[in-house]
Write a structure and sequence with these properties.
The protein is 60% helix and 0% strand. It has a domain of 40 residues.
């Protein structure tokens, strides 16, 4: 049986692949942040007037750690009391499900095509 030789890819094609992958990675990481869809909470639901470590619910050990980081009760107020927003819309959920299912179908189709190409290259086309 002959030794399999995979097809060669040119340097320009490899460079293009790397650039596309970097753009997709940066996009996946930063687009949600630029669209303000990710990150910490934007507001405090119940602000505290004249905050102290005690009114913020911090123990002396926690207060000491915040102070070691350069925070006082007023500057740590938003950091401590901010909460994440776990709400979502049904439309966004449906859109995400559709995207995942379409991606799965696309990967199955590409895998089938590549599998058939490798089998045909290795053993010949028997159609």
């Amino acid at each position: 049986m002959a030794h399999y030789e995979p097809p060669k890819q040119s340097k320009a094609s490899q460079l293009f692949d790397v650039i596309v992958l970097v753009i997709l990675t940066v996009g996946a990481l930063f687009v949600p942040i630029w669209l303000k869809m990710a990150g910490a909470a934007k507001s405090v639901t119940q602000p505290v007037e004249n905050p102290t470590w005690e009114t913020l619910g911090q123990t002396p050990a926690q207060a000491a750690q915040y102070e070691a980081l350069g925070y006082d009760p007023a500057s740590a107020h938003d950091l401590i009391l901010a909460r994440f927003d776990y709400s979502f819309s049904a439309g966004a959920l449906i859109a995400m499900i559709v995207v995942i299912v379409l991606y799965y179908v696309l990967m199955l189709k590409f895998s089938e095509v590549e599998y058939r190409e490798v089998i045909a290259e290795k053993f010949g086309d028997r159609r």
